[in-house]
Amino acid sequence: MTLPLDGVRVVDLTRMFAGPCATAVLADLGAEVVKVEEPRIGDPTRRNLPLWGEESAYFMSLNRGKRSVTLDLKSPTGAAAVRELIATCDVLVENYRPGVMARLGLDHETLAAAHPRLVYCSLSGFGATGPLRDKISFDLVNQAMAGTIDLTGDPEDRPVRIGVPVGDMAGGLYVAIAALAGLRARDRTGRGSWIDLSLHDVLISLLAGVAQRYLSTGEVPTRTGSRDRDVAPQGCYRASDGWLVLSAVTDTHWCALAGALDLPADDERFADARSRKRHESELDALLATGLGERTVARWTADLTAAGVPAAPVLSLPDALGSALVAGGGIAFDAEHPTVGPMRNLASPLVLDGHRAGVGATSPVHGADTEDVLRELGYDEAALADLADAGVIRGVAWS
Amino acid sequence: MVSATAGPLDGLRVVEVGTHRAGAFAGAILADLGAEVVKVEPPLPADDGPATDRLVFDRGKRSVAVDLDRPQGRDVLARLVARGDVLLDELAPAELSRLGLDGARLVHCSISPFGPAPAADVPATHPGCEDLLVQALSGNMDLTGEAGGPPFELGIPLGDLGAGVYAAIGVLGALVGGAAEIDGAGGSGTRVEIAKLDVAVALLSYMAVGWFADGEVPTRVGTGHSTIFPYNAFRARDGEVVVAPFTSRFWRNFATAIGREDLTHLDSYRHFAGRLENKDALTAIFTPILAQRTVADWLAAFAAADVPCGPVLTVAGALELDHTVERGLTPSFVDGDGTRVRTAGSPFRFRFADGTTYVPQVTRPPRVGEHTESLLAGGRTA
Q1: How far is CA B58 from the centre of its chain?
Q2: Potential cystine with A386: which of A132, A297, A391, B211 (Cβ 3.0-4.6 Å)?
Q3: Which of B229, B329, B332, B342 to mutate to test the interface with A (most CBs of A within 10 A)?
Q4: What are phi and psi of A19, to 5 degrees?
Q5: Which helix (H) or strand (E) holds B181?
Q6: pTM for this structure?
Q7: pLDDT tens, residue by residue, A114-150
Q8: Which residues of A are catalytic?
Q9: CA distance A375 to chain B (A)
């Protein structure tokens, strides 16, 4: 099947999580992504544990469907080669700290002069402007400073980090949007663009509803456990053998829940969703007693049968093995060139009935160096010179 | 900073119907980038979220109010779809077919909570709790919380918002790939389908593939990380501060900044693996030290010593941060009643090759049905 971005070429100067996530999305959509890596170690996440064979599971999860080219960008010949590569590409994605691309002579102004149609995407922790532009960022730091840690956990206890890498992933996804919007504009106007995205800005944007609550009312939202801010009951409860979530905020669902738990249906405190919210602690105590008497499986079955939204809190293996997730087909098996049979996650996007990203594997470090450079016109002698000079990864190193 | 330049999605026509938070967020992203987004909604919209949500999820859109239970209402929808390039919805297949929207020849993106799963596998649900169910069923909640304590819903509704983000990606991918817009030669259209559950599963990323690789089950670890240390929050005298000094250089800087440079000479803590292995012992050493000084003191000390760090800010703290305001992330618009409303802005900043720039400008959300007449009149002549 033809994919939407067939024929689009992306030069990928990113490492770690957020940048690679962005270019993985573009690869899922059919773009040819050429990942440029430092010759000796490459993307540092190639060494992240656990390993699968000689490859890192972390790296494999974020680099499916890409080609890998090694180039030492600090050497004049490596810098020249990457410029030749950029000349053949539609999109450039980089996630160096602000200023690094300029030191490499690859800043937007320089490249835009030579390639006015290039869509150049920069992603950094805090962006290219503003007082924190040079601050070192990690997902933890961005989550802390965008409010998402304070928003997560028990209001009576210390906050916790969202356990999945939300800041990095959201940053990557917004880069993909920026690149696609930049391509659309270029196709209509002929003008390329530079997009300066920051993980901080993306997380601020994702505060959406809670941000507006503060900005419109002055109330400072903080963590609620897993409860809704306005209506009840909705949240996470302990059953006899684990945790489940449920929601009974509509009057229909509330009556069904009260019936299932044998709670009095005519208690005025619980007459409507907002009143139930006002009396949430009494309500939660009643629910805790009832729900503690049966297992998660029993309650989710009984509540679902009664029409009440309810679900078990599943561990990662149970979630991936569940009929709902497995049946959707987001996990797939593939044959990695050195690891052999392996399993990976594809994209949540299903296009014309086909799930994007299925079957793609990550490249071995430098696997495509010679092919890509040959496409640019390098001959065997030139490749040998680059390998001897350490500008590309030589065969003898592996 | 005012940008007179047209946005990258200038001229793109998007129709939103039957959307909740996820689809509305996708529409808002496209509107921020310059698309014309028409929200088709019932004359009396359902009350399924806080009143302030409309200010941020529907800003910059147009509203057409129609009753889709009546044939005339469905005709209006059909006309809007006929002049559109993109259709966004959160409707079930049966509802799409009742509205005559299946087989529409444009980029058509539908968001559902669980995808096309057999009814027996799907929980009862309603729009306000889909995110909670999705987080529970995806493994995201189980990974969030203190070790040994309860799991927690993520502080922002990522199943919903992430699905909106992916919808924007899917729609734009299809458009860039040649699904024609109305001013081009007729296209065949592209169907884009997104399950919120898949979006939440995608967030498992390396944690899922790590489990595929070695069968080690990841669990929740508070503010920490299962394979990186130090990488967590500590309680200072007046609040929480996060630090991430896990590389050799940052580790030396951190140990020195807290007055325990001696730790860096011990073999057991010399390497990353040793520090990770001994994280409980090290945490017991750090905790009382970090508790002695204020967040501001520690941030100053860590900044001077070059240690990755940050304060744990509230939503208010994050929005009022100088950096946030200076980056233009809290823009404002004048609402229908004349009040100035600040909002959480869009992160996109474009500089085009000719030197012009585009920064999304926010405008107020429409009143329900505000554009019904103007769009229908325009629709006839278009």
Answers
A1: 15
A2: A391
A3: B329
A4: -65, -50
A5: none
A6: 0.97
A7: 999 999 999 999 999 999 999 998 999 999 999 999 9
A8: 168
A9: 24
